[in-house]
Design brief:
Chain lengths: ~210, ~400
């Protein structure tokens, strides 16, 4: 089977292709004219090739969203249900690293390091427990390691992470996080949630108690 | 650390003392006098210690600003004029001194004229030095992304401050009107060299550097703010969903103009088979294998049965037909044959016959019986009626099995 067909199949199976999740496939698609060719091929099946607003990557969308109402609604419910646990994971990692920034495509995640910090910090292990109580990352493992492994495994399945070094448990964040951030920003803007303001208010409040 | 600083500090001061003559003569004459030119080693040391510096290749060696102001202060020298980044005052000083110089020159007072010229040179070079120093400092901050402060907000404030400083210097630099300076220098070749060649070249260079620093600062500020906004968005969502765990945005796919961001296809899942040749999910597989081991251990821990002799003559009497479900399946198949091999669903047969078996178990029995039959010579055809499970994608239920003879 040709590389082209393989990639088309991956896209139809809902894979997110970027330089970190599927480097070879991504390199193939960014060759001149190749993404147009793929898009043309997908359009014959009433699909289309999409990319996130920011960052690079490819995923498959419906060419005629109106004709796929039921499936889109189902997908939408899945996306919305996953938002909260995914965001909890992002903040957990941000807290373990002490970074100002949240995970970005290409960031390296070392599971053993993350595990060490969580094991030493009660607040963080409580947060991890909360994450694994969600159906997306449901885990009954009693250890931090077991819980993290399950989360990371699920994130690989969802194309948010790529396992870059199995022996040392080193993972790379993919560009799918950009899509997630785009989606949150869209909800924030459309529903006027003023999420950024919420953090500021929260910080000011905790400053008062300090 | 303190000891080291102390040690090198003492060494530095001793070196100043040791070369006091050279330094003082340089201070008085503006540049290192010719008498010392043979003493290259000393000069190199002093350059290295930032006591001396050379504004440009064709200029003599000057005292650095710090040493000069130290001497000016120590000697209570009248020439001690504080020079800062305030370009207005620098220009005014240079203009004033140029006035003095021209006057002395025209009245034939060459000694004074030469002293004024040295003063002008000193001010021009100090200005150049301070501009260079400022630019250098700025780039250091830029290059380590304001690493001296920890938080992102502090970095943003530092960046804004630096931008303000760059703006002030740039505005100051525009005050140097080179037409004015050229007029000021007049026909004097020394003044032209100082004010037009040296100063103009240096200020042009500095202005270019500063505008590229300004661009970098602006981009960096944008980057900092993007990080802050992205992080606040994520943290805000976390705070929000903790406060409103059941929050659901309106179903965007129902909008007439559906946002493209949520146009993600429902994956077409192929058969879920493990490819053991891929190394990536190695640890997942290892985990699975480990869990299998645990199961075996459980079985081993089951109470040991008493050993008993196996009597081989009993083998012939063991007959699978004796199982009620097997009998029932065979009766079902006979029923299919009796009906001229027409398609009959296992469940409809189940409802016809008064069974003691569980419905699910019945379906499973039919399925496993049909599956165990030799496919090549099988007279019967089967079709599984599947239904997709709603909670987990990719899983399917067998709802019924149809059997017929083709």
């Amino acid at each position: 089977m040709s590389h082209f067909a393989d990639i088309a199949k991956n896209l139809i199976q809902g894979k997110f292709i970027c330089e970190y999740s599927y480097p070879e496939e991504y390199a193939f698609l960014v060759k001149p004219g190749m993404s147009d060719e793929m898009d043309g091929y997908l359009q014959k099946m009433e699909f289309t090739l999409s990319t996130p607003q920011q960052g690079n990557g490819f995923y498959c969308s419906y060419l005629l969203p109106k004709h796929n109402h039921a499936d889109l609604k189902k997908q939408f419910t899945e996306i919305i249900t996953a938002l909260s646990p995914l965001v909890s994971f992002l903040t957990l990692i941000q807290q373990t690293s002490g970074d100002d920034d949240v995970i970005r495509p290409g960031n390296i995640l070392r599971m053993t390091e993350i595990q060490g910090v969580i094991e030493d910090t009660t607040v963080l292990s409580t947060q991890l427990d909360k994450i694994v109580s969600h159906s997306l990352f449901k885990s009954t493992s009693p250890t931090v390691e077991g819980k993290l492994k399950l989360i990371f495994m699920r994130l690989i399945e969802m194309d948010y992470l790529a396992l870059s070094n199995p022996a040392h448990q080193i993972y790379t964040a993919t560009s799918k996080w950009s899509l997630l951030i785009d989606q949150i920003r869209f909800i924030n803007d459309t529903e006027k949630l003023s999420l950024e303001q919420l953090v500021e208010d929260n910080t000011q409040q905790s400053d008062l108690y300090d | 650390m303190t000891d080291e600083i102390r040690k090198s500090g003492v060494q530095f001061l001793k070196s100043l003392g040791k070369h006091a003559d050279l330094i003082l003569d340089t201070y008085l004459q503006g540049t290192v006098p010719v008498d010392y030119e043979d003493n290259q080693k000393t000069i190199d040391t002093l350059i290295q210690q930032q006591v001396l510096w050379q504004p440009s290749e064709d200029e003599g060696l000057h005292l650095t600003r710090a040493i000069r102001s130290m001497l000016e202060q120590g000697l209570k020298d009248e020439r001690n004029r504080q020079l800062d980044i305030n370009m207005g005052s620098a220009i005014a000083t240079i203009k004033t001194l140029t006035g003095h110089y021209k006057e002395a020159q025209s009245s034939g007072n060459y000694r004074d004229a030469s002293a004024y010229l040295r003063d002008i040179a000193e001010h021009v070079f100090s200005l150049i030095e301070s501009l260079r120093r400022n630019v250098h400092k700025l780039w250091t901050h830029i290059n380590n992304e304001f690493g001296r402060v920890g938080s992102l907000s502090a970095k943003i404030r530092e960046n804004e401050l630096a931008q303000e400083q760059v703006n002030t210097i740039l505005i100051g630099l525009t005050m140097f009107d080179f037409k004015d300076l050229a007029e000021l220098a007049g026909a004097s070749p020394q003044l032209r060299k100082l004010l037009v060649v040296n100063l103009q070249w240096e200020i042009d260079k500095c202005a270019t550097e500063l505008s590229s620093a300004q661009k970098r600062l602006f981009r960096m500020l944008g980057h900092f703010k993007e990080i802050r906004s992205r992080s606040a968005l994520v943290q805000g969502f976390q705070v929000f969903s903790e406060a409103h765990p059941d929050y659901q945005p309106p179903c965007y796919p129902e909008l007439t103009n559906m946002p493209g961001l949520f146009n993600v296809i429902k994956p077409f899942k192929s058969k879920g088979l493990l490819d053991v040749n891929i190394e990536d999910p190695e640890f997942i597989l290892t985990q699975l294998v480990q869990s299998i081991k645990v199961a075996t251990v459980d079985q081993v821990e089951a109470p040991d049965r008493d050993p008993r002799a196996v009597e081989f003559n009993e083998m012939d009497e063991v007959d699978i037909i004796e199982k009620p479900e097997t009998l029932a399946v065979e009766n079902f198949l006979s029923h299919v044959i009796d009906n001229n091999g027409q398609k009959i669903s296992a469940l409809s047969y189940y409802q016809m016959i008064d069974f003691i078996l569980d419905e699910e178990f019945w379906l499973f029995s039919v399925f496993s019986y049909m599956d165990s039959m030799d496919h090549e010579s099988n007279l019967f055809k089967t079709k599984l009626l599947m239904n997709t499970q709603s909670e987990f994608t990719g899983n399917q239920f067998i709802e019924d099995i149809e059997v017929w003879i083709s």
